[in-house]
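Thread title: Can someone regenerate the structure for this chain?

I was given the following input by a collaborator and told the matching structure tokens would be attached. They weren't. Posting the sequence so someone can regenerate them.
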Amino acid sequence: MIGNWSTTVGRTVRGRSAPVTYGLIVLCCLIFVIGPASGLNPVYGTGDELLAAQRAYFRRWGVVPSELFTGDARAALTPATALFIHGGWLHLLGNMLFFYVFGAMTEERMGHVEFALFYLGCGYLALLGYAAANAESQQTLVGASGAISAVLGAFLYLFPKARVTSLFPFLFFLPLRFPAWVVLPFWVTLQWLAAGRVSAGPGVAYLAHLVGFSLGFVYAWVRFGRTARVKTSAAAPEGENQP
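Best answer:
Regenerated them for you:
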């Protein structure tokens, strides 16, 4: 999961023409539901049988850093396939919430084809960067977090004054409105701090988040320059906020 608060954005651009964003959300949800991680597909059984199926599934489609740089063609494809695999319901819903909120406006600004290539390319490179920094790791890495982090980075550059309503758990979930340039760097700081923690068990690939976010921000900066930035920060008219 790429964040620990819910968000809505006051839309400076309507962001309704976003077939790539919505198509990717549907695809990720469909793949999750029919896969073993959801627990809904009876083909994979229950109990120990289901756990074994999940491990084999993640091993096949996810990134295993120790295998990625061995020259195996199948392993080289896994940073792409892993973008569509999620480890659980919270992992899926957290990623898709952020993608739904920030993806549509970014896609509309970039254009559909460019956005699709941007999403896949940055997502691949984010997972590749994580694997390179953890080349000996046997832990499987799955999820769209790296690609969605790139979308957040591009959004921050393109819409720095967009108003974001955040529900921070340590503030008793009070809804507070901040511009994107406050909320998203704060999220990056949390990722950076979390990336420094050592965990003995499976965890979140925070480094992939940071790599993806940086790639997205730099891409938008180089590709669009200063003239493409949307600087209006007023709240959207009633009924135009996204959940």
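The longest helix spans residues 89-110.
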